[in-house]
Amino acid sequence: MTHIFLKKNQRMGFALFLLVLCLGFFRNAWAIDAPAAGETPMPFQPYTDVLLGTNVTLEHPQEWTVQKERGQSEIYEQIRLLGPKNTAGTFRALISVRVYPLAKEGGRFANVEEFIANYANHLPKGAKIETNRRLITENTASVLTASYTIPPVYQQGLKGLAIPVQSKVCVFQRESHLVEISFSTDAEEFEEQQAIFEHVLASLRLE
Amino acid sequence: MNRLLSRRHSINGFSLMEILLIVVVLGVIAGLAIPSYLRTVRQAESLEAVEHLGAIRLAQTAYYTGHGTFAESLERLPDSPSLDLSISPRKFDYTVERANENQFLVLATSKEPVPWANLPYKVSIDEAGNVLYYWPESGGSAASGTGHSGSSTTSGGSGASQGHTGSGGSSAGGGANSSGGSSSGSGSQGGSNSGSGSVTFTHTPPTAFDYIARGDDLWSSWPDANVINIGGTEGTALLAAVFDLVANSGASAVTDDLFSKGIEISFGDPSQFAGNNPIAFLDPNGIDDFPGPPVPPPVIVFNPFYINEDAGVLAAILVHEATHFQEYLDGTLAEFYAGNITNTDVEFTAWWNEAVYWAEVRDDFLPIDTPLEEQLELAYQTALQGEGALRDLITQIYM
Question: Between the N and C ends of chain B, which has fewer C-beta atoms within 10 Å?
Answer without folding.
Answer: N
